[in-house]
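Structure first, sequence second, as always.
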């Protein structure tokens, strides 16, 4: 990934605006103390934006496809298990499931063994979307790895796993 340049205390001019499209995006002064965090933020924002555009074609919003993929792969599940498996929180998962239910993609029912639990299952309407959602994920992945060799991809996965571990440890210390 290309590292943006810091703009320092310089103000933008018309000449800056007319600069080549290949020039690195200037890094805001406020982000200079966290260049890697800023890069992660930018990549995550672009990834989410592209995923949203692609998912809109099949009538889903970002995050809903993860629930559907989990249900398609593993079958009906307790809502609390979806929270744990997808790293969500209960309130977000409840809203996501409600929206998917309203759209006709999932059905909720009480658990036959635990009256406190809700089972979420895919509907026939969502099963018809599975192939399209998988194609969206393939297209998204192709966009992510477009200029990366298989070695670059393996290295990126390793570095991202280390960053995730570091952030998990930091979150555990704070929370």
């Amino acid at each position: 990934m290309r590292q943006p340049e810091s703009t320092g205390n310089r103000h933008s001019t018309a000449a800056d605006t007319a600069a080549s499209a290949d020039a690195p995006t200037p890094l805001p002064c406020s982000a200079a103390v966290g260049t890697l965090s800023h890069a992660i933020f930018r990549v995550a924002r672009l990834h989410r934006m592209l995923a949203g555009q692609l998912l809109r074609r099949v009538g889903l919003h970002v995050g809903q496809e993860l629930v559907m993929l989990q249900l398609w792969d593993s079958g009906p599940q307790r809502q609390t298990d979806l929270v744990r498996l997808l790293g969500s929180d209960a309130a977000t998962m409840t809203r996501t499931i409600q929206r998917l239910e309203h759209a006709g993609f999932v059905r909720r029912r009480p658990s036959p063994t635990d009256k406190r639990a809700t089972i979420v299952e895919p509907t026939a309407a969502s099963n018809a979307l599975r192939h399209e959602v998988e194609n969206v994920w393939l297209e998204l992945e192709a966009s992510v790895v477009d200029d990366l060799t298989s070695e670059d991809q393996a290295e990126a996965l390793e570095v991202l796993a280390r960053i995730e571990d570091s952030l998990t440890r930091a979150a555990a210390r704070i929370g």
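Margin note: The two ends are 31 Å apart (CA to CA).
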